[in-house]
Each structure stands twice: as C-alpha cells, then as structure tokens.
Write a structure and sequence with these properties.
Strand 4 (about 120-125), helix 5 and strand 5 (about 145-155) form a beta-alpha-beta unit. By secondary structure, the chain is α/β, with parallel strands linked by helices. About 35% of the residues lie in helices and about 20% in strands. It has one domain (about 5-310): Alpha-Beta Complex (Inosine-uridine Nucleoside N-ribohydrolase, Chain A). The strands form 2 sheets. Strands 3-2-1-4-5-6-11-9-10 form a 9-stranded mixed sheet, sandwiched between helices. The chain binds beta-D-ribofuranose and calcium ion. Calcium ion (CA) binds near residues 12, 14 and 128.
Length: about 325
C-alpha cells in the first residue's frame, strides 16, 4: 500500500475547518495526520482549540495531538468572524465537552519539533490565518527544507471581509507575506474556487441520506453555516472553503490550477490583506503559487459521499 502523506492541519474550527478535518481523517483519505494546531481566527484560539478537540472526539480521532497556537496575529490586534461561525465558533450542533485536553506544547513549537525531526517531508494545511506558520518559519528557518507543500485556504481575486481581502489573509497579512515569500511551494484555494464548492440543498440531502453520526454532524454544521452565509452574503448555501484543501490532497484531479505570482498587500483600508494574483503575468515575477481556479462538482461531492460513508464501516 502506498505510504500515507504526512500533514499538519493548522486551523480555527470553524464549520468548514471541521468538515476538512472529517474528510482528511476518513477511511478514504491518504493522509497521516501528524497533529492539529489551532490559531486565533474565526474566534479566540481557546475556543478554536476546544472545537478541534470536540470534533476529534466526534469522529473517533483520539490519537492525533491537538496543540494550541497563536493567540493573536503577528502585528495586528485580534479580530473575529463571530457572525459567520457563531459565539462558540462552531454554533449549531451540540457536542459534549472533550474527553481530553490539548497537549502541553505551543502549536508553533509542536510544528517546529515535528518538522525538524521527520524522515519524510510534512505538508502543512492551514485553513485559518497564517500566524502559526509564519512564526515557525521566523523562529526556525531550518524547518523550511522539510515542508513538502503548503496547501492553504485563503485569499482570492476578490474579498469577503473587505471588498478586496479574504478573511484568513486579512486577519494576519504580515504572516501571509512571510509564508507566500518563503519559497516553499504554496497551493492556494482562494474564494474564486471555494465559492464553487457550495453545499447546496441537494448536496445536504445526499449527506442526510447517509445517516451515520458523522454525516448527521456534517449536515448540522452545514445547516448553521448555510444560514449565516444566506444572512450575511445572500448565498443560496454555504461554501465548504476549507475542505477544498483536504479534498485536493486526497484527489488532486478534482481541481484545475494556474501557476501564478501572488503578492500580499499589507497597506490600505480596503487593500490590507489582499492577495494580488497576477493572472496575466503583468509583474513578470516568477510564479510562487499553484492557484486553484476550477473544480469538478461531480468528483468533489462523490469524494464526500465516499468519505462520509466510510464512517459507517
Ligand atoms: C475562511 O474564513 C473562515 O471563516 C472559514 O473557516 C474559512 O477558512 C473563508 O474566508
Ligand atoms: Ca477556517
């Protein structure tokens, strides 16, 4: 059997972060989850950590360490997206208190330790602000050689927090700049493609029909998330932004890509946190990003069906 690919899921769960974890931990996944690190993003990092632990319990992921990371962005004050994810950061489903605590090691230290002492390279999968990864790169540049790829959800050619900036990048644009300029291969799932991963009524009905505890949990997550996306943005359904990352790692053929140069803007009332995606190559800069531009709906939802069904086995 092919060796599983080692990943660290760096997240702020978050409805779509939770769905990304569920996909990555399913039996159809080729991923070996070395750990889950949390970061301040959708809500305060303590809440995100609690949510990560609850999600792990829900899906029986008891052996994967959860390490709490940065409490605030590198330079900016902390801001949250409570409107989208609710007071707890994971409003909707009722989950019991977690059976375990986060490990007694900072998420950034965990990441550094794992990356320094690994035989195979590790892929980092950030689905929140990039603070932890930037901190790790600044503190221990020696980790860079052992990062296989950074597969992230963030940015796009338009914004959802300002007209130009997407939330994850906007929360900590300085951190994003460090990561995008690091020279490590970056695969980017921005709003251009994640808005196409809409969990429509039909998709939710498909998941409902599976009827195991994990698929039911995903349906509850999507019910809440779709409602806030309708209220806040007028969308017909919620986009499962973050789960595009794990979907790609399991089946890269779901997506189409363009090799482009992306710079991070760190100034301006509206432009702070913008990912300047040079689609036409006007900067003449070497591409530094594999930019996801399209997805295959059938393949994506089929993967989800298989993944959720695998929790019945
Ligand atoms: C991103 O922001 C968060 O609210 C979601 O979890 C996702 O990571 C979308 O802009
Ligand atoms: Ca997220």
């Amino acid at each position: 059997m092919e060796q599983k690919r080692k990943v660290i899921l760096d997240c702020d769960p978050g409805h779509d972060d939770a769905i990304s974890i569920i996909l990555g931990a399913s039996k159809v996944s080729n991923l070996d989850i070395v750990g889950i690190t949390t970061v301040a993003g959708n809500v305060e990092v303590e809440k995100n950590t609690l949510n990560a632990l609850k999600v792990c319990d829900m899906i029986g992921l008891h052996d994967v360490p959860v390490a709490q990371g940065a409490t605030k962005p590198l330079l900016k004050t902390r801001e949250i997206a409570g409107e989208i994810h609710g007071e707890t950061g994971l409003d909707g489903p009722e989950l019991p208190e977690p059976s375990r605590a986060a490990i007694d090691q900072h998420g950034v230290d965990f990441m550094i330790e794992k990356l320094l002492h690994t035989k195979e390279k590790i892929t980092l999968v950030p689905t929140g602000p990039l603070t932890n990864i930037a901190m790790a790169m600044i503190r221990e540049p020696g980790i860079m050689a052992n990062i296989e790829e950074i597969v992230l959800m963030g940015g796009g050619t338009f914004g959802n927090w300002t007209p130009a900036a997407e939330f994850n990048i906007w929360v900590d644009a300085e951190a994003a700049k460090v990561v995008f300029e690091s020279g490590v291969p970056v695969t980017m799932f921005g709003l251009d493609v994640t808005h196409k991963a809409l969990a429509t009524k039909e998709v939710v009905e498909r998941f409902s029909a599976i009827g195991n505890p994990v698929s039911n949990f995903v349906v509850e997550l999507l019910d809440f998330f779709s409602k806030t996306y309708k209220d806040v943005f007028g969308f017909e359904a919620g986009p499962i932004h973050d789960a595009c990352t794990t979907a790609y790692l399991i089946d890269p053929d779901i997506f189409d890509f363009k090799q482009v140069h992306v710079d991070i803007e760190t100034k301006g009332e509206y432009t702070y946190g913008t990912t300047c995606v040079d689609l036409l190559g006007v900067t003449r800069k070497e591409p530094n990003v594999k930019f996801a531009s399209e997805l295959d709906q059938d393949k994506l939802w089929l993967l989800f069906d298989r993944a959720l069904k695998s929790y019945s086995e």
